């Protein structure tokens, strides 16, 4: 009971029986309890005459019993007195603490009332001023929207007319070029078919002459090899020792003739379609002439200017280099982002490494070439694990006044290139990520590079 272990081994029954009969006990486990060890040793004697009785055990246990009783009573009395003093001290402390707490509460209640009154006044003043500011800002935004709408509408209508004229000229040029090419192919094909027709006519005439030599349907024995062309070729090869025969060649020529006839029919149908399209192009040209009137004479020079301008922009796009860019303004991060994601900063998009910038519908504003005028050719975007599904591109020459350029559809490619339309001259560029490729709003971007040519280069 004292050690929590059996005095004898219980693993094997024979060993347990021998230890019980011989009183073989490991007394080292009772060394911390010397009085108990003495009692157990005398109770487990093998010889009955040497074994202690109950009277002997009681006599041994009552030795020094009076000393233990006195020690126990003194300890109980001192503990009771100490507990009484502790309860009295706790009551005194609780009374003093309650008094101090009431005094602090009354003082803090007065201060809180004063602070609450000041806070209510400050919030009401802020509400009034903000309401006035929002009313004035809405009125100003309505005025700005009306002016900008008129300006952009005029610019759009002018650009639409220019693009329509350019498209009509380019389509006419492509149609005329294609028609001339088809016409030349048709001429070559007709000449080739005439040669084939002449050869067939010649062969037919020779066949008629050869047939006229035989007045009867019976062919003489020596001329049996002339009964068919195949027999003639085989006989010629055997008689004159010529290993080459024209039978495969004739078969091939017949197949070529059939293919050429099919090709001729296909080209004739295609030529008819092109003639109809050419008539439609001429009709469009005539309608354009009537619509422009006297201004039709300016149509060709304008189209030449448009072509030269497009070629110049294409050459500039090929010569575009990576521009020096930086963020237009410092970005403000929430306290949660600063604590939990201190590495998630917008400057990560300027570094071509494994770091990414992840946020809700990011709108990234860049300053190009240290604020100088730049021809913007293309944008190279490397998305993160959840890249954008579409982006909107804006340009500007003045801060916080953006002109929309185009929206681009993105894919899951590790590197995507977006070529800007027209000639975009700007100092600042904005890339707005609408949503991600999974349909959500959290977008991650790894690297962005903008290519172009500085205007002073």
List keywords for this structure.
about 450 residues, alpha+beta, five-stranded antiparallel sheet, 10 strands, about 55% helix
Question: How would you explain this protein's 3D organization?
Answer:
The chain has helices spanning about 15-20, 35-45, 55-60, 65-210, 230-240, 245-290, 300-320, 335-340; strands spanning about 320, 325, 355-360, 365-370, 375-385, 390-400, 400-410, 415-425, 430-435, 440-455. The protein is of the alpha+beta class and about 450 residues long. The strands form two sheets. Strands 1, 3, 5, 8 and 10 form a five-stranded antiparallel sheet that branches.
List the total number of helices: 8
Mean pLDDT: 82
> Which assembly state applies to the chains in this document?
single chain
- Largest sheet composition: 5 strands, antiparallel
Which stretches are poorly predicted, pLDDT < 50 over at least 5 residues?
none
**Terminal residue distance:** 99 Å
Helix content: 55-70%
Following the backbone from N to C, one meets helices and strands in this order, namely: HHHHHHHEEHEEEEEEEE
Number of strands: 10
> Over all CA atoms, what is the radius of gyration?
54 Å
Shape: elongated
Strand content: 15-25%
Query: By helix and strand content, what is the structural category?
Result: alpha+beta
């Amino acid at each position: 009971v004292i050690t929590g272990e059996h005095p004898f081994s219980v693993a094997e029954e024979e060993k347990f029986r021998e230890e019980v009969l011989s009183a073989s006990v490991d007394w080292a486990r009772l060394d911390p309890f010397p009085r108990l060890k003495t009692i157990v040793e005398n109770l487990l004697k093998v010889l009955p005459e040497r074994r202690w009785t109950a009277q002997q055990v009681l006599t041994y246990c009552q030795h020094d019993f009076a000393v233990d009783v006195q020690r126990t009573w003194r300890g109980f009395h001192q503990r009771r007195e100490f507990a009484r003093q502790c309860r009295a001290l706790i009551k005194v402390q609780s009374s003093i603490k309650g008094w101090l707490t009431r005094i602090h509460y009354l003082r803090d209640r007065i201060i809180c009332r004063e602070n609450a009154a000041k806070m209510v006044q400050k919030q009401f003043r802020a509400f009034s001023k903000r309401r006035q500011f929002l009313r004035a800002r809405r009125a100003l935004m309505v005025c700005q929207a009306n002016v900008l709408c008129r300006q952009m509408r005029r610019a759009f209508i002018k650009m639409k007319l220019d693009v329509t004229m350019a498209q009509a000229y380019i389509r006419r040029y492509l149609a005329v070029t294609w028609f001339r090419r088809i016409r030349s192919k048709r001429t070559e094909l007709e000449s080739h078919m005439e040669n084939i027709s002449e050869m067939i006519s010649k062969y037919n005439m020779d066949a008629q002459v050869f047939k006229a030599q035989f007045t009867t349907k019976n062919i003489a024995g020596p001329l049996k090899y002339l009964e068919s062309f195949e027999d003639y070729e085989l006989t010629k090869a055997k008689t004159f020792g010529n290993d080459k025969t024209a039978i495969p060649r004739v078969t091939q020529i017949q197949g070529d003739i059939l293919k050429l006839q099919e090709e001729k029919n296909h080209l004739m149908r295609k030529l008819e379609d092109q003639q109809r399209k050419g008539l439609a192009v001429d009709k469009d040209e005539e309608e354009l002439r009537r619509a422009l009137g006297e201004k039709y004479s300016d149509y060709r020079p304008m189209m030449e200017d448009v072509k030269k301008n497009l070629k110049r922009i294409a050459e500039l796009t090929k010569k575009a280099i990576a521009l020096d860019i930086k963020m237009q303004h410092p970005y403000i991060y929430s306290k949660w982002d600063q604590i939990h994601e201190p590495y998630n900063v917008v400057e990560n998009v300027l570094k071509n490494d494994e770091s990414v910038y992840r946020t809700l519908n990011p709108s990234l504003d860049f300053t190009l070439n240290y604020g100088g005028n730049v021809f913007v050719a293309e944008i190279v975007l490397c998305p993160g694990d959840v890249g954008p599904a579409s982006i909107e591109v804006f340009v500007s020459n003045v801060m916080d006044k953006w002109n929309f350029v185009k929206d681009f559809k993105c894919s899951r490619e590790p590197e995507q290139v977006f070529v800007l339309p027209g000639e975009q001259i700007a100092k600042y560029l904005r890339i707005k990520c609408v949503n991600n490729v999974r349909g959500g709003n959290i977008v991650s971007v790894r690297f962005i590079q903008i290519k172009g040519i500085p205007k002073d280069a």
